[in-house]
């Protein structure tokens, strides 16, 4: 069944009741069930902003700050419309409420091509937005924060501004139209002035009948490279992450977790457990059953300090290592998983995700075809801050301190484990020491709650070691793709057929957290990046086969795009080579009906000096350029990489030039930061990233064997932003997908060797 | 076993009752309540726990607290002086941090570098900073910020600190 058909069928189940509900106006996002709690120190004008008597503006942000700069960018949206003084702006995490639920990510997650805009598509988007408002799931991910808050945050700012002006006008007995707000002050045309802080308590009575947003031409803050609000605190050690929480009488916990596929907690004898209980500082040692949230069966140690807990856990782990290994886990290895995926690609047809033009028939009828199979491995998230959560469990309530991309699911996990209602759990959200999709899962939170249950009324901080974190991740699924194309006599594509196979990450995730809409049907994220690209192929067939294994998979920065971009953009280069055409020019021909993507491609090419001669590297080795373009999260990014290969075969990337169209650039400084970040993350994994599993356990355990890019391997990066007045789109992820193919394409130009597997490794003969 | 030891942290004495083999990192973070120094790998390969012992950058995650007795321990909470100000100022001006988790360690390594070498080259920066991992990809800005801090500092006579 076509995904589109399936989805509509799913939405349709509900009959008349559903149709009646559909006619109700969409839930508004301005004010939630309650206003933000300010402890009496400030006035909340709506769910998104509070104003204190001293003019401090607190922007209430529903998104997790995990490095992507969203707290600063969201505050800019508010400040622009409110008309306050930027120097007085701070941010605070929002409470959990439906008004903060992510609407954009759900709508963007629909299985429609980005430029589809027919009546049916618009209707489904509208219904999905309405559904998302009702579900109200708070989620930071999918590069969606600015898109999601672009309207509500500005509307909240404009509404608050109108209320402040209303209060000032009433105070002075003048018409509101004679007053304006600027730099935190309402000014009357006769020169009288009142500060926002003086007006706030009166302003709550003045609710504007109509909200008028500023025109883009009048923006003074949006569009400027405003410094981040968190740079100072993150440079002097005062920024507090979840792992930094210090509570009175707090205990610490460490764990020993079962390998993948194991059905029981690691096995130790009673005598061994007893031995651990007598170790210094140890308060409790217990088995954990694991939960539906994905935390595996485990043993946990609670102690007075984390070091003491860790030492006791290490002693337990040593006992486990000498004992019997779970037979179920023993057989889990990436060798067999990869073999299964390869067989599936070869033998299965897959679920069609998008097809038109009779591509398969055209391929079969063609006399000139090209075929290649590409592979990408499992990858770990490896956030710098290891997974951790602090839980205080009492009889009738619980508190959670952690960094999470999904505060509502985090709350539900604690409530579920402790047998409480959601309302009995308080979540204290912290900034995240990296997310990359790892903190969309709440396994570590459920686990911490299960541990804290053993010591009621005492807060317990559970911290994973780096080894725990590396070996108990929800990995980017390994994926294999078979690509075929038919070419005409001039080398033009007449049919493009892509069939990939691999585990379905969003479906797996949806089952863990209990998100119903995406637990059945094809998983769009598995093959995104192939079927939704802007190239105008006369015929396309993109399909995916979902495979299963005991290796847990999840959402890794840019999800399907992270590997599909490598497949498609490398294969396009193969087609350009077969057609004996320049890779940039070949792409440009295919983008004639997508001027936005074409402009990005041309900007990257021009700024990189595409086609001009390149100097040799410092050691005399030749350099070459490669180009790749990718669309995702509403944005388009093109990257040109300059690479060389050292005499020992090491791949070096000297310079990367990126061009991005992400709609109206809210903060060019943060956009550049995020594109740099995506490039380095993508390069890190393109050059080194691979997670290998043996006997149910990853071979990699820490940064010495799961290698990440270091400063001495980091290229010079230039980011060029296309000016635009379109609504802003994502920047957290789109910088990542194009870099692996850009490097692989450069290596082909340099050496004539086409690398079709990640991580990129030069075969010995090509290196010399 | 648990002993009471006295450490000199950021110029002030601090008492901790901990096992002698406890890494300095956990004494700083949990016993002394200074969480600016981070935990990342536990085996000295990521650098987020970097502190100074008598002015020399070390990884606190593998430094037993007993090895820090009698030495001047400087953490991100206590780093001061013109070099630290120049580094932290550049860090903020160039918006180096993203998630920020590795940045305490990056700043500590950068300050140690500039205290030893007032005008580092790119190669000097690579050598001094390659032990500090960053997962968000702030390396280009770290490089620029170190150069900027070096430019902002007055040239010092040889041998002074």
Explain this structure to me?
The complex is a heterodimer of chains A (about 775) and B (about 160). Chain A has about 775 residues and is an alpha+beta fold. Chain A has three domains: about 30-100 and about 135-220, 2-Layer Sandwich (Aldehyde Oxidoreductase, domain 4), CATH 3.30.365; about 240-325 and about 385-465, Aldehyde oxidase/xanthine dehydrogenase, molybdopterin binding domain (Aldehyde Oxidoreductase, domain 4, 2-Layer Sandwich); about 335-380 and about 475-765, Aldehyde Oxidoreductase, domain 4, CATH 3.30.365.10. Chain A is about 35% helix and about 20% strand. Chain A has 23 helices and 25 strands. In chain A, the strands form six sheets. A seven-stranded mixed beta sheet of chain A has the order 9-10-8-16-13-14-15. Chain A has a five-stranded mixed beta sheet with strand order 11-19-18-17-12, with helices on both faces. In chain A, α3 runs parallel beside α6 (about 145-170), α13 (about 405-420) packs parallel to α14 and α18 packs parallel to α22 (about 740-750). The model of chain A is unreliable at about 1-15 (pLDDT under 50). The model of chain B has no long low-confidence stretch (mean pLDDT about 95). Helices cover about 35% and strands about 15% of the residues of chain B. With about 160 residues, chain B is α+β, with helices and mostly antiparallel strands. Chain B is built from five helices and five strands. Chain B has two domains: about 1-75, Ubiquitin-like (UB roll) (Roll), CATH 3.10.20.30; about 80-150, [2Fe-2S]-binding domain (DNA polymerase, domain 1). The interface between A and B is large, with 63 and 58 residues.
